[in-house]
Amino acid sequence: MDLSPQISCCQARSEYICNHISLLALGADPSLTTIESGSMGTVYKIHHPVTSKAFAVKAFHAADGESIPDFAAAIQHEFSVGAAMANHPAFARSYALLTDAESLQIHLIMEHVPLALLDLLDRAYWTHDDTHCLFTQVLQAVLDLHDSGFAHRDLKPGNILLSTGGHVKLIDFGEAVPLDGNATSFTGTRPYIAPELYAGEVGGYDAAAADLWSLGMLLLRLYLEDDPWDDSSPKDEYFNAFLDNPHALLDGLDLDADIEQAMLILLDMEPSNRYQIRQLWDGKLGHDPLCAVDEAGMLHLPLEFT
Protein backbone atom coordinates (compact mmCIF):
# COMPACT_ATOMS: atom_id res chain seq x y z
CA MET A 1 0.00 0.00 0.00
CA ASP A 2 1.21 3.49 -0.86
CA LEU A 3 2.24 5.27 2.33
CA SER A 4 2.88 8.66 0.73
CA PRO A 5 1.62 11.55 2.89
CA GLN A 6 -2.12 11.86 2.45
CA ILE A 7 -5.30 12.84 4.22
CA SER A 8 -8.48 10.81 3.93
CA CYS A 9 -11.64 12.24 5.47
CA CYS A 10 -15.03 10.70 6.14
CA GLN A 11 -16.86 13.76 4.92
CA ALA A 12 -16.01 16.83 2.86
CA ARG A 13 -16.71 19.11 5.79
CA SER A 14 -13.92 17.34 7.71
CA GLU A 15 -11.30 18.82 5.36
CA TYR A 16 -11.11 21.90 7.58
CA ILE A 17 -10.26 19.68 10.54
CA CYS A 18 -7.73 17.66 8.56
CA ASN A 19 -5.92 20.65 7.09
CA HIS A 20 -5.47 22.34 10.44
CA ILE A 21 -4.67 19.34 12.58
CA SER A 22 -2.43 17.25 10.35
CA LEU A 23 0.85 18.91 11.37
CA LEU A 24 0.03 18.41 15.03
CA ALA A 25 -1.04 14.81 14.49
CA LEU A 26 2.08 13.83 12.57
CA GLY A 27 4.58 15.91 14.51
CA ALA A 28 6.12 15.62 17.95
CA ASP A 29 3.94 18.33 19.42
CA PRO A 30 4.54 19.05 23.13
CA SER A 31 0.83 19.73 23.70
CA LEU A 32 -0.09 16.07 23.13
CA THR A 33 -1.50 14.35 26.20
CA THR A 34 -1.38 10.55 26.36
CA ILE A 35 -4.79 9.00 27.00
CA GLU A 36 -3.70 5.36 26.84
CA SER A 37 -0.95 3.22 25.38
CA GLY A 38 -0.95 -0.43 24.35
CA SER A 39 0.67 -2.97 22.05
CA MET A 40 -1.25 -1.71 19.01
CA GLY A 41 -0.60 1.98 19.51
CA THR A 42 -0.92 5.10 21.62
CA VAL A 43 -3.92 7.41 21.88
CA TYR A 44 -3.31 11.10 22.43
CA LYS A 45 -5.54 14.04 23.21
CA ILE A 46 -4.95 16.95 20.88
CA HIS A 47 -6.51 20.40 20.50
CA HIS A 48 -7.41 22.12 17.27
CA PRO A 49 -4.98 25.07 16.90
CA VAL A 50 -7.77 27.46 15.86
CA THR A 51 -10.90 26.37 17.71
CA SER A 52 -9.25 24.55 20.67
CA LYS A 53 -11.71 21.69 20.17
CA ALA A 54 -10.36 18.41 21.55
CA PHE A 55 -9.71 15.39 19.32
CA ALA A 56 -8.27 11.93 19.97
CA VAL A 57 -5.35 10.83 17.79
CA LYS A 58 -4.45 7.14 17.66
CA ALA A 59 -0.87 6.50 16.60
CA PHE A 60 -0.58 2.90 15.41
CA HIS A 61 2.42 0.61 15.92
CA ALA A 62 3.08 -2.37 13.67
CA ALA A 63 3.36 -5.68 15.53
CA ASP A 64 6.69 -7.49 15.50
CA GLY A 65 7.08 -9.27 12.19
CA GLU A 66 4.03 -7.60 10.63
CA SER A 67 4.55 -6.50 7.05
CA ILE A 68 3.94 -2.86 6.17
CA PRO A 69 1.19 -3.72 3.63
CA ASP A 70 -0.65 -5.88 6.19
CA PHE A 71 -0.20 -3.19 8.85
CA ALA A 72 -1.56 -0.46 6.59
CA ALA A 73 -4.45 -2.61 5.35
CA ALA A 74 -5.57 -3.43 8.90
CA ILE A 75 -5.67 0.24 9.85
CA GLN A 76 -7.48 1.17 6.66
CA HIS A 77 -10.06 -1.49 7.54
CA GLU A 78 -10.58 -0.03 11.03
CA PHE A 79 -10.98 3.44 9.54
CA SER A 80 -13.41 2.22 6.89
CA VAL A 81 -15.74 0.57 9.40
CA GLY A 82 -15.61 3.66 11.60
CA ALA A 83 -16.36 5.83 8.58
CA ALA A 84 -19.39 3.68 7.76
CA MET A 85 -20.80 4.55 11.20
CA ALA A 86 -19.57 8.17 11.16
CA ASN A 87 -23.00 9.76 11.41
CA HIS A 88 -24.28 7.51 14.20
CA PRO A 89 -24.25 9.30 17.57
CA ALA A 90 -23.44 6.10 19.51
CA PHE A 91 -20.06 5.69 17.78
CA ALA A 92 -17.00 7.86 18.27
CA ARG A 93 -16.56 9.55 14.90
CA SER A 94 -13.50 8.81 12.75
CA TYR A 95 -12.49 12.03 10.99
CA ALA A 96 -9.28 11.31 9.12
CA LEU A 97 -6.52 8.81 8.46
CA LEU A 98 -3.08 10.38 8.11
CA THR A 99 0.00 8.55 6.82
CA ASP A 100 3.65 9.55 6.75
CA ALA A 101 5.94 7.68 4.32
CA GLU A 102 9.16 8.79 6.03
CA SER A 103 8.30 7.57 9.53
CA LEU A 104 5.92 4.80 8.37
CA GLN A 105 3.51 6.09 11.00
CA ILE A 106 -0.25 6.11 10.61
CA HIS A 107 -2.54 8.28 12.70
CA LEU A 108 -6.31 8.10 13.07
CA ILE A 109 -8.04 11.33 14.09
CA MET A 110 -11.21 10.67 16.05
CA GLU A 111 -13.83 12.38 18.14
CA HIS A 112 -12.57 12.88 21.68
CA VAL A 113 -14.88 11.30 24.26
CA PRO A 114 -13.76 12.23 27.78
CA LEU A 115 -14.85 9.30 29.95
CA ALA A 116 -13.95 5.60 29.85
CA LEU A 117 -16.43 3.07 31.22
CA LEU A 118 -13.57 1.17 32.85
CA ASP A 119 -12.80 4.21 34.99
CA LEU A 120 -16.44 4.65 35.98
CA LEU A 121 -17.34 1.09 36.99
CA ASP A 122 -16.20 1.63 40.56
CA ARG A 123 -18.29 4.76 41.08
CA ALA A 124 -20.44 4.19 44.15
CA TYR A 125 -23.52 5.94 42.77
CA TRP A 126 -24.22 3.38 40.02
CA THR A 127 -27.67 1.90 40.53
CA HIS A 128 -29.36 -1.04 38.82
CA ASP A 129 -31.40 1.48 36.83
CA ASP A 130 -28.23 3.26 35.65
CA THR A 131 -26.69 -0.07 34.69
CA HIS A 132 -29.80 -1.05 32.74
CA CYS A 133 -29.79 2.26 30.85
CA LEU A 134 -26.09 1.98 30.04
CA PHE A 135 -26.52 -1.54 28.67
CA THR A 136 -29.54 -0.48 26.62
CA GLN A 137 -27.39 2.16 24.91
CA VAL A 138 -24.63 -0.35 24.16
CA LEU A 139 -27.22 -2.79 22.84
CA GLN A 140 -28.64 -0.13 20.53
CA ALA A 141 -25.15 0.61 19.16
CA VAL A 142 -24.37 -3.07 18.52
CA LEU A 143 -27.78 -3.61 16.93
CA ASP A 144 -27.14 -0.77 14.50
CA LEU A 145 -23.63 -2.05 13.79
CA HIS A 146 -25.04 -5.49 12.95
CA ASP A 147 -27.76 -3.90 10.83
CA SER A 148 -24.95 -2.15 8.93
CA GLY A 149 -23.41 -5.55 8.19
CA PHE A 150 -20.58 -5.78 10.73
CA ALA A 151 -19.80 -7.69 13.93
CA HIS A 152 -17.54 -5.88 16.40
CA ARG A 153 -15.71 -8.91 17.91
CA ASP A 154 -14.09 -6.95 20.75
CA LEU A 155 -16.97 -5.74 22.89
CA LYS A 156 -15.74 -4.98 26.41
CA PRO A 157 -15.81 -2.12 28.94
CA GLY A 158 -12.52 -0.80 27.55
CA ASN A 159 -14.14 -0.10 24.19
CA ILE A 160 -17.05 1.85 25.63
CA LEU A 161 -16.69 5.56 26.31
CA LEU A 162 -19.18 8.05 27.72
CA SER A 163 -19.75 11.74 27.25
CA THR A 164 -20.13 13.93 30.32
CA GLY A 165 -23.87 13.87 29.60
CA GLY A 166 -24.05 10.07 29.84
CA HIS A 167 -24.11 9.18 26.13
CA VAL A 168 -22.42 5.88 25.20
CA LYS A 169 -19.82 5.91 22.41
CA LEU A 170 -18.53 2.61 21.02
CA ILE A 171 -14.94 2.56 19.71
CA ASP A 172 -12.27 0.33 18.14
CA PHE A 173 -13.30 -1.44 14.95
CA GLY A 174 -9.97 -3.12 14.30
CA GLU A 175 -11.44 -6.62 14.73
CA ALA A 176 -14.79 -5.94 13.05
CA VAL A 177 -15.78 -8.31 10.24
CA PRO A 178 -18.64 -8.44 7.73
CA LEU A 179 -21.60 -10.60 8.70
CA ASP A 180 -21.84 -12.25 5.29
CA GLY A 181 -19.88 -15.36 6.31
CA ASN A 182 -18.31 -17.22 9.22
CA ALA A 183 -15.34 -15.66 11.01
CA THR A 184 -12.22 -17.74 11.54
CA SER A 185 -9.64 -15.78 13.54
CA PHE A 186 -9.25 -16.03 17.30
CA THR A 187 -9.62 -12.46 18.48
CA GLY A 188 -11.08 -10.30 21.22
CA THR A 189 -10.24 -9.68 24.85
CA ARG A 190 -10.39 -12.25 27.62
CA PRO A 191 -12.80 -12.98 29.28
CA TYR A 192 -15.22 -11.49 26.74
CA ILE A 193 -14.22 -13.97 24.02
CA ALA A 194 -16.98 -16.48 23.30
CA PRO A 195 -16.21 -20.13 24.20
CA GLU A 196 -16.64 -21.39 20.63
CA LEU A 197 -13.52 -19.45 19.62
CA TYR A 198 -11.47 -21.61 21.98
CA ALA A 199 -12.83 -24.74 20.32
CA GLY A 200 -11.41 -23.70 16.94
CA GLU A 201 -14.18 -25.46 15.03
CA VAL A 202 -13.64 -26.23 11.36
CA GLY A 203 -15.60 -23.77 9.25
CA GLY A 204 -15.28 -20.92 11.71
CA TYR A 205 -17.88 -19.35 13.95
CA ASP A 206 -20.83 -16.97 13.85
CA ALA A 207 -19.38 -13.53 14.67
CA ALA A 208 -22.82 -12.10 15.49
CA ALA A 209 -23.41 -14.84 18.08
CA ALA A 210 -19.93 -14.19 19.50
CA ASP A 211 -20.89 -10.52 19.94
CA LEU A 212 -24.00 -11.64 21.82
CA TRP A 213 -21.82 -13.65 24.21
CA SER A 214 -19.68 -10.55 24.76
CA LEU A 215 -22.81 -8.53 25.50
CA GLY A 216 -23.80 -11.12 28.09
CA MET A 217 -20.37 -10.85 29.68
CA LEU A 218 -20.60 -7.07 29.67
CA LEU A 219 -24.02 -7.19 31.32
CA LEU A 220 -22.69 -9.53 34.00
CA ARG A 221 -19.59 -7.38 34.57
CA LEU A 222 -21.72 -4.28 35.09
CA TYR A 223 -23.23 -5.90 38.18
CA LEU A 224 -19.96 -7.27 39.57
CA GLU A 225 -16.87 -5.68 41.09
CA ASP A 226 -14.56 -7.54 38.71
CA ASP A 227 -14.56 -9.99 35.81
CA PRO A 228 -15.99 -13.31 37.05
CA TRP A 229 -13.32 -15.45 35.34
CA ASP A 230 -10.25 -15.11 33.15
CA ASP A 231 -11.26 -17.26 30.17
CA SER A 232 -14.57 -18.62 28.91
CA SER A 233 -12.87 -21.97 28.52
CA PRO A 234 -13.19 -25.35 30.28
CA LYS A 235 -9.63 -24.83 31.50
CA ASP A 236 -10.82 -22.00 33.77
CA GLU A 237 -12.10 -23.32 37.10
CA TYR A 238 -14.30 -20.28 37.79
CA PHE A 239 -15.93 -20.54 34.39
CA ASN A 240 -16.56 -24.25 34.97
CA ALA A 241 -18.14 -23.46 38.32
CA PHE A 242 -20.49 -21.02 36.58
CA LEU A 243 -21.46 -23.64 34.01
CA ASP A 244 -22.18 -26.15 36.76
CA ASN A 245 -24.34 -23.75 38.76
CA PRO A 246 -24.85 -20.28 37.26
CA HIS A 247 -27.38 -19.32 39.92
CA ALA A 248 -24.68 -19.53 42.59
CA LEU A 249 -23.21 -16.37 41.05
CA LEU A 250 -26.36 -14.64 39.83
CA ASP A 251 -28.60 -15.16 42.86
CA GLY A 252 -26.45 -12.86 44.97
CA LEU A 253 -26.83 -9.92 42.58
CA ASP A 254 -30.49 -9.10 43.34
CA LEU A 255 -31.33 -8.94 39.64
CA ASP A 256 -34.67 -8.49 37.98
CA ALA A 257 -35.83 -11.93 36.81
CA ASP A 258 -35.93 -10.79 33.18
CA ILE A 259 -32.35 -9.55 33.30
CA GLU A 260 -31.10 -12.74 34.94
CA GLN A 261 -32.87 -14.80 32.28
CA ALA A 262 -31.30 -12.65 29.55
CA MET A 263 -27.85 -13.25 31.01
CA LEU A 264 -28.37 -17.01 31.02
CA ILE A 265 -29.51 -17.01 27.38
CA LEU A 266 -26.67 -14.74 26.25
CA LEU A 267 -24.14 -16.89 28.09
CA ASP A 268 -25.32 -20.18 26.61
CA MET A 269 -22.45 -22.38 25.44
CA GLU A 270 -24.34 -23.20 22.25
CA PRO A 271 -24.23 -20.13 19.96
CA SER A 272 -27.51 -20.98 18.24
CA ASN A 273 -29.32 -20.92 21.60
CA ARG A 274 -28.40 -17.30 22.29
CA TYR A 275 -30.68 -14.42 21.51
CA GLN A 276 -30.63 -12.90 18.08
CA ILE A 277 -29.79 -9.25 18.66
CA ARG A 278 -33.18 -8.09 17.47
CA GLN A 279 -34.85 -10.44 19.99
CA LEU A 280 -32.77 -8.91 22.76
CA TRP A 281 -33.62 -5.38 21.63
CA ASP A 282 -37.34 -6.19 21.49
CA GLY A 283 -37.25 -7.41 25.10
CA LYS A 284 -36.98 -5.51 28.35
CA LEU A 285 -33.29 -4.69 27.93
CA GLY A 286 -34.00 -2.83 24.72
CA HIS A 287 -36.67 -0.58 26.17
CA ASP A 288 -35.64 1.27 29.29
CA PRO A 289 -38.13 3.97 30.28
CA LEU A 290 -35.68 5.17 32.92
CA CYS A 291 -33.14 6.39 30.36
CA ALA A 292 -33.22 10.09 29.61
CA VAL A 293 -33.80 11.11 25.99
CA ASP A 294 -32.03 14.06 24.38
CA GLU A 295 -33.34 16.47 21.73
CA ALA A 296 -32.12 14.12 18.97
CA GLY A 297 -34.08 11.23 20.45
CA MET A 298 -30.96 9.42 21.71
CA LEU A 299 -30.92 7.61 25.03
CA HIS A 300 -28.46 8.65 27.71
CA LEU A 301 -27.89 8.11 31.40
CA PRO A 302 -29.82 10.58 33.56
CA LEU A 303 -26.52 11.58 35.18
CA GLU A 304 -23.86 14.22 34.70
CA PHE A 305 -20.29 12.93 34.97
CA THR A 306 -17.24 14.95 35.87
From TrEMBL:
Family matches, as InterPro entries: Kinase-like_dom_sf (IPR011009), Prot_kinase_dom (IPR000719), Ser/Thr_kinase_AS (IPR008271), Ser_Thr_kinase (IPR053235)
SMART domains: S_TKc
Molecular function in Gene Ontology: ATP binding; protein serine/threonine kinase activity
Segments forming domain Protein kinase: 29-290
PROSITE patterns per UniProt: PROTEIN_KINASE_DOM, PROTEIN_KINASE_ST
A cellular-component GO term for this protein: cytoplasm
UniProtKB keywords: Kinase, Transferase
Protein name, per record: Kinase-like protein
Source organism (scientific name): Dothidotthia symphoricarpi CBS 119687
